Amino acid sequence: MKNLKLASLETAKQTVVNVAGVKIGQDLAVIAGPCSVESEAQTLETAHAVKAAGADMLRGGAFKPRTSPYAFQGLGMGGLKILAKARQETGLPIVTEVIDPRDVSWVAEFADILQIGTRNMQNFSLLKEVGRAGKPVLLKRGMHSTLEEWLNCAEYILSEGNPDVILCERGIRTFEKYTRNTLDLSAVPAIKEMTHLPIIIDPTHSTGRLSLIAPMSLAAVAAGADGLLVEVHCNPQMAMCDADQALTPDMFTNMMQRLRPLRSFMDQLPLK
Ligand code: PEP
Ligand code: MN
Fold first, then answer.
1. Can you give the pTM of this predicted structure?
2. How much distance in Å is there from the Cα of 66 to the middle of ligand 2?
């Protein structure tokens, strides 16, 4: 792609983003946790459960980009403090979303990875700001964006001097209504033909259906994804956000018991 300088395969073969020993782009990185941080008890309980199931990192939103201004918007600074406590107790690095360029520098003091949500993929001032934040960035694909537009957004971050960008496919809008979005799994091998940046899959927001999360996660591993970002809640019926699509800790544990062996099997296959 002619516009890409730093993201193109001419620059590097494979970026490995090392977050406290978790090597995204080398090992399968599983990031799990609630959609949003609701309370200390909910976050800590979920954090311990995902850790026990073998997750590598904890996710949780303190700033929620909601469709309605009246919906729960997240706990903000209070949520970040809870995430810091969860990291302290479990040792899991924290992935959390930042939605406002003015918040980037102080959110970066709490986060191990700054998440840019689908709605902000092309928020160029936010991209420039996280490019200067000194923390790895998880860049979600815009729900109506092409791979080329997405990679140009990664280029915005890279060109500010931040080499640690992780791409996350989270589904795109199509005419299909059965799923919340359409998971574009072909993005995994396609992205690998275009860039050295790691790519992970979000099976939660893409499918929006509990029954599809494990099959699509396994399919993502088979397609060569570098990891997963998946929502887990200690008590999904009580979740303040995305209650219908959060895995219980038991469901997550069961999925993990199938994911890791699949990855090991894939690693043993002859190189193509
Ligand atoms: C999220 O992962 O918390 C989220 C809001 O996802 P998306 O930006 O993909 O909708
Ligand atoms: Mn969610």
1. 0.98
2. 10
180 lines ligand 1 (CB under 6 A): no
Which ligand approaches the C-alpha of residue 66 most closely?
1
CA torsion, ordered 153, 174, 258, 166, to nearest 10 deg: 0
Q: What is the pLDDT of residue 1?
A: 78
Closest residue to atom 6 of ligand 1, CA basis: 117
Sketch the domain layout of the chain as residue ranges.
17-64+73-264
Tens digit of pLDDT for each residue in 163-180?
999 999 999 999 999 999
- The CA distance from 75 to 39, in Å, is 9
Pick the CATH number of 17-64+73-264 from 3.20.20.120, 3.30.390.10, 3.40.50.720, 3.20.20.70: 3.20.20.70
Closest listed residue to residue 94, CA positions, set 38, 53, 40, 33: 33
Atom number, ligand 1, closest to the C-alpha of residue 143: 9
